[in-house]
Automatic annotation (TrEMBL):
Compartment(s) where it occurs, according to its Swiss-Prot or TrEMBL record: Cell membrane
Protein's UniProt name: Oligosaccharide flippase family protein
Transmembrane segments: 50-76, 96-116, 122-139, 151-174, 180-202, 258-279, 300-327, 333-354, 366-389, 395-413, 425-443
Pfam family, one: Polysacc_synt_3
Membrane topology (UniProt): Multi-pass membrane protein
Domain of life: Bacteria
Signal peptide location: none
Organism: Ruegeria marisflavi
Keywords, alphabetical: Cell membrane, Membrane, Transmembrane, Transmembrane helix
InterPro entries found in the cross-reference section: Poly_Biosynth_Transport
Protein family according to the UniProt entry: Belongs to the polysaccharide synthase family.
């Protein structure tokens, strides 16, 4: 116990990594527990079509956010001036302008998007949901400063508190009105709560409008490739739902979104931790610098892969039973979806953290190249999978796209000495064996979904 305590204590890099990883896992686990509780309550207060409509609203909002991301967070994390008030205030000014523009664009796109998906209700709900983009533009840069220094304990508590406030409002509104508007307003209330809580309770200087030319040049130079890369991130993270919105009925899309939420939970938890931790780690311990750094990083990656991989395989194994326990009969097809989605995410274990090394070294261009390869393969695989094998083929295509893009990821990892071939081989072999067993266990449920 004393060795464990000493590993978490002190101000060294690995101690801060362990503490931050613990807090991030607590934060993400708590966040998803709140989200699951809200989901269970809302599925009883509302109807599957409501979740389908909000899936489309979320796709648009996340898409706008990602298509316009200029990399303020990663820039603060890796830039030597990341603690300079002029740099931070310039970054905040850019962020505020971006939030205002996103809200305006969302309003302008409302009618065309409603017509594209043949859902007139989007005209009512999309502008309301987009208010969260406007509010988030005013989030203080103290949030990114806390991540830069791997000091995220208080921030995690504030994030959970703001989410709980939004969920509480959403449940009360749905109980009183039985309206989809509850889902649209919940995210807005949560964003407002986070803005207020972080402004008053997170330590650090208050942001002011500032435009320093040198800081703006640094942010724009670093962010231009991030801007393009996050546009591709939309394709990778939301492309399936954007395409399925045209392929599935609105109620089936809502069921798919529930299956995706449960099936992707372990991977999303890992990505939320890795995205915040690995840039500072690669920045302070470059793998190409010496063998000791590579050894530390190898152990860190192995621990992450083991924990996330086991969680994914467990979720795949219990997917149908879990859905049957938590949801009523209207949502039962989400069960085999959970199994397939969890297994489809498993190949991403192999490439976890490799893209972060490029961002840590300030090489956003190489990061963009890899994201472009992944996005192209994902769109092609989804379209082919849906065309020839229906919904099951569309889900399986998520795994095939990751496998097809692996050579590009290896190119990036080798460029900075981060490739760990032994880790990748072990992860692949273990995944193949477990996938075969789980598919055999749930073949009847998957066949039922394939017949939809």
């Amino acid at each position: 116990m004393s060795r464990l305590f000493s590993a978490f204590s002190g101000s060294g890099l690995m101690a801060r990594v362990l503490r931050s990883a613990s807090w991030l896992m607590v934060g993400y686990g708590g966040s998803q527990a709140l989200r699951l509780a809200a989901n269970l309550i809302m599925t009883r207060l509302l109807f599957p079509e409501a979740f389908g409509i909000m899936t489309l609203v979320t796709v648009v909002i996340v898409g706008l956010s990602l298509f316009s991301d200029v990399g303020v967070g990663p820039a603060i994390a890796q830039n030597p001036r990341g603690d300079d008030p002029d740099f931070l205030n310039t970054a905040w000014t850019i962020q505020v302008f971006r939030g205002c523009m996103l809200f305006a664009v969302a309003c302008l796109l409302t009618i065309p998007i409603a017509r594209f998906y043949h859902e007139p209700d989007l005209v009512k709900y999309l502008p309301v949901g987009a208010l969260a983009l406007l509010v988030s533009g005013f989030f203080p840069t103290r949030i990114e400063t806390a991540h830069r220094h791997l000091l995220v304990g208080r921030l995690t508590v504030l994030d959970l508190a703001s989410q709980a406030i939004g969920i509480g409002f959403m449940v009360i509104y749905a109980e009183l009105n039985q309206s989809v508007m509850a889902l649209a307003l919940g995210g807005v209330v949560s964003a407002v709560a986070k803005l207020i809580l972080t402004h008053f309770l997170l330590p650090g200087p208050v942001n002011r409008f500032r435009w320093e030319r040198a800081a703006a040049d640094d942010l724009i130079h670093f962010g231009k490739w991030i801007f393009l890369s996050t546009a591709l991130t939309f394709v990778i993270s939301q492309g399936d739902r954007a395409i399925l919105g045209r392929y599935l009925s609105i109620d089936m899309l809502g069921i798919y979104n529930i299956g995706y939420f449960l099936g992707s939970f372990p991977m999303m938890a890992g990505l939320s931790m890795i995205g915040r931790i690995m840039i500072p780690v690669y920045r302070d311990k470059p793998p190409a610098e010496n063998a000791t750094n590579r050894q530390h990083l190898s152990r860190l990656r192995a621990g992450m892969s083991l924990s996330i991989g086991l969680a994914l395989l467990l979720m795949a194994a219990i997917g149908p039973q879990l859905v049957g326990l938590l949801y009523d009969d209207r949502y039962q097809l989400a069960g085999p979806m959970v199994t397939l989605i969890s297994l489809a995410f498993y190949p991403r274990l192999v490439i976890l953290t490799y893209d972060n090394v490029a961002l840590a070294m300030g090489d956003s261009r190489s990061y963009f190249i890899v994201m472009m390869v992944r996005a192209v393969f994902q769109i092609l695989c989804i379209l082919v999978g849906l065309a020839y094998f229906g919904l099951v083929g569309g889900i399986v295509s998520l795994a095939l796209a990751t496998i097809a893009s692996y050579p590009a990821v290896v190119w990036l990892a080798r460029k900075y000495g981060a490739w760990d071939a032994r880790h990748d081989i072990v992860a692949v072999m273990a995944g193949l064996l477990a996938t075969a067993l789980i598919l055999w266990m749930h073949w009847a449920d998957i066949a039922l979904l394939a017949g939809y």
